[in-house]
Specification:
By secondary structure, the chain is an alpha+beta fold. Helix 7 runs antiparallel to helix 8 and helix 14 packs across helix 17. The two termini are about 15 Å apart.
Length: about 725
């Protein structure tokens, strides 16, 4: 009994550390990729190792894992009965087989990607189990994990400080533990394991404490990251711009959940526009401020409209003065979404297209009749260019729409009080909403705020993005300015939202893409990516404002002249090229900025934490009961399995399974004990001669290559008798 407890404790330690090592690969995914619901995959990995720990049969273990996968996929994607989900999953697998063989990766749906990811984790868990208990080696996988974390920490937004510390402390202990186990199996050492464990823990702890608290000098060598990043840049670019050797090039990006950090803009041309007016090119809006960045509301309402027909979307009240304009867009860097000006009316293109507008973010997509996203190369638009009357803006009454106010005045409770106090101080004495908005817009231009792209802070875990910019750094780019203005307005109860897209770009002198009179040609690059603010006024609608230092609002206000300018901005993550279902493209775009709490919301809608805790507790209790009573039921499971087993090697497998049952029963075979000696020990314990007979027959099969088909009936009876004795 004591040995069984020791073995259980040892296996629990090894499996727990191996499970943690694999989970370290999953934790960065939400930061560096568009992967959602990482907790679901973490639970799956935990279940895999729990099943290995309890030594559940392969067929039962596979059934439990498949059941978990089906339940998870249904909760996250299908939302149907569990009988229907199996049919959907099988159909999806069949449909995706030709896609996999033709390597059209962009056409894979999110549900099928998740299914493949589950299979990958299943395989990795098995490999770790094999390396741990067969090879007793894990150094290669440990090195891969350390390399993976350090590369992500160096080249992405993921901060791996905690992961690296865990890898050093627990990883070294796991490697040392496996090494001592190999020595024990070879009889190189005997006893002293407890002393070794204490010594190992003390040594690792001492090394960690010395490394953590000792003074650290700054590096004395050049930063190698800059060299790696700049190596792929064209030589001409390196000669013209030495900064490329220091900072990566970035443009428009999808993930805004964690803003901040330096960049240098990318001159890659995104599109060329023939247009009658300068204005901003919109891509999407976001409405949830998290304290670290922006996310979008969960509700998805899609409005569809045909090409060359009015989109039927109201941008402003009828009282706003508007001019009808036309423009042509020629895409150079393909992407799924549509760029368009505020006031869009129609879109025309030669292809047979259906356009879809996500009303929550106002992001538009071009699709075919089967709802598959299409990357357009060129399209023509008609839009209304507004002129806002300052008198009407000043006369606008307070917003009464409670639903709109609740959504667009949202702020997390973590926003510091001094941010709210600053907003009240800025608008002190201002009577109308327009005066208050203009006061906050102008505040950034007159109080020492600097446009900066290189020396830009990244908020820490306890820092608020806006608070850090307003009171500590006072330097940043458009994300800092626009987000700060939205937060200041919302703290006053004024509905405002964050908008991202592109500026009007650079005018190309003498360019003639088209022959239409009265149109200019503008070249828009990644460096023209930009974010700004839109504020809602009752009786008027959404009105754009520009708080960023060095930029001017391109829209016309009565008695106000403004000239648009351009500047570089945020992070770039290009969408994969291909033809994919529009529901998957929209889901990826909307989910890329989701935090851990938000991405897991759909799962928690069905499974609250209380319910999850109860279910997990019940499962653990059942698993513990099964483990404690395994000697009563496990032998009969083995008898059932071998009842239908066929083949010449049936006896050898049965004999080896008998050895495992005897070992679990408590009849341990010593290292220097032969099979015959061990058989005599077993027979003496049970007062039989059955084990000796089976052992002699087993030695004949192994050493003399004899078959046992003729004697199987007798062998089976002897074997079954001993198996049943282990259940007593």
């Amino acid at each position: 009994m004591v040995n069984a407890i020791k073995n259980l404790g040892k296996n629990l330690l090894i499996y727990g550390l191996a499970c943690w090592l694999l989970i370290e690969w999953l934790l960065p995914l939400e930061t560096v990729s568009d992967t959602r619901n990482v907790q679901v995959f973490i639970w799956f990995v935990s279940v895999c190792f729990l099943l290995y720990l309890l030594r559940i049969p392969v067929w039962l273990s596979a059934f439990i894992k498949i059941a978990y996968m089906v339940c998870a996929l249904n909760t996250l994607f299908y939302h149907v009965s569990y009988l229907q989900v199996l049919k959907l999953l099988v159909r999806e697998i069949v449909d995706h087989v030709p896609i996999l063989f033709s390597m059209r990766w962009a056409e894979l749906t999110n549900s099928f990607r998740s299914f493949l990811f589950f299979l990958l984790l299943w395989m990795m868990a098995y490999l770790l189990h094999y390396w741990l208990f067969t090879q007793k080696r894990l150094f290669f996988f440990y090195v891969l994990t350390v390399t993976y974390i350090t590369v992500l920490d160096t080249f992405t937004m993921f901060r791996g400080n905690g992961a690296i510390i865990r890898l050093v402390v627990f990883g070294f202990f796991l490697l040392s533990f496996l090494h001592i186990e190999r020595l024990r199996e070879k009889a190189s050492i005997a006893g002293g394991i407890r002393k070794w464990t204490v010594f190992c823990l003390c040594l690792i702890g001492l090394a960690f404490i010395c490394g953590y608290f000792s003074p650290k000098l700054p590096p004395k060598w050049p930063d190698p990251v800059a060299f790696v990043r700049s190596y792929a840049a064209p030589q001409e670019e390196k000669r013209n711009d030495p900064a490329l050797a220091k900072v990566k090039k970035i443009g428009y990006g999808q993930n805004d959940s964690r803003l901040g950090g330096p960049f240098i803009a990318d001159d890659t041309v995104v599109f060329i526009a023939e247009d009658q007016k300068r204005h901003y090119w919109r891509v999407e809006t976001k409405d949830i401020y998290t304290g670290k960045g922006w996310e979008s509301s969960d509700s998805v309402q899609v409005k569809t409209f045909e090409k060359n027909t009015d989109i039927g979307y109201s941008w402003w009240n009828l009282s706003v003065k508007k001019q009808t304009m036309t423009a042509s867009i020629h895409i150079k860097e393909p992407y799924f979404h549509i760029v368009y000006p505020l006031g869009l009316k129609t879109i025309d293109t030669p292809e047979d297209i259906v356009f879809r507008l996500d009303t929550a973010t106002e992001k538009m997509y071009a699709t075919d009749r089967s709802a598959y996203a299409i990357m357009l190369r060129t399209y023509n638009i008609t839009y209304e260019y507004p002129t806002f009357s300052i008198d009407k803006l000043n006369a606008a009454p307070p917003v009464q729409d409670e639903g709109l106010k609740k959504r667009y005045t949202q702020l997390p409770e973590s926003v510091p009080k001094r941010v709210r106090d600053l907003a009240k101080q800025i608008v002190k004495g201002k009577q109308t909403q327009y005066e208050q908005v203009k006061a906050i817009e102008q505040y950034f231009h007159m109080n020492g705020y600097v446009y900066e792209t290189s020396d830009v802070a990244i908020p820490g875990e306890k820092d608020d993005y806006v608070d850090q910019f307003l009171f500590e750094t006072k330097k940043g780019y458009c994300d800092n300015f626009s987000t700060s203005m939205v937060v200041l307005l919302r703290s006053l109860g004024i509905p405002a939202r964050w908008v991202k897209g592109y500026t009007s770009g650079q005018l190309i002198e003498g360019a003639t893409l088209g022959e239409e009179e009265g149109k200019n040609v503008y070249q828009v690059t990644n460096k023209d990516a930009h974010s700004w603010v839109e504020v809602y006024f009752s009786g008027i609608g959404w009105v754009p404002f520009e708080p960023t230092q060095g930029f001017a609002n391109p829209y016309e206000f009565t008695d106000l002249q403004s000239t648009p300018e351009t500047a570089p901005v945020p992070r770039q993550r290009r969408l994969e090229q291909g033809r994919v279902p529009i529901k998957d493209v929209m889901e990826q775009d909307r989910s890329s900025s989701s935090s851990v709490k938000e991405t897991f919301a759909s799962f928690l809608d069905i499974w609250s934490w209380k319910r999850i805790t109860i279910v997990v507790s019940i499962l653990l209790a059942c698993a513990l009961v099964l483990y404690k009573t395994r000697r009563k039921w496990w032998p009969y499971v083995t008898l059932f399995l071998f009842k239908y087993k066929r083949g010449n090697d049936r006896f050898t497998k049965a004999y080896l399974s008998l050895l495992r049952h005897l070992d679990d029963y408590g009849l341990k075979r010593k290292q220097d004990q032969t099979l015959r000696q061990y058989a005599a020990y077993v027979d003496d314990w049970f007062q039989t001669k059955e084990m000796t007979k089976l052992t002699l027959l087993y030695e004949k099969v192994i050493y003399q290559q004899e078959t046992v088909r003729v004697e199987w009936a007798e062998v089976k009876e002897l074997w079954e008798n001993l198996i049943k004795k282990t259940a007593s």
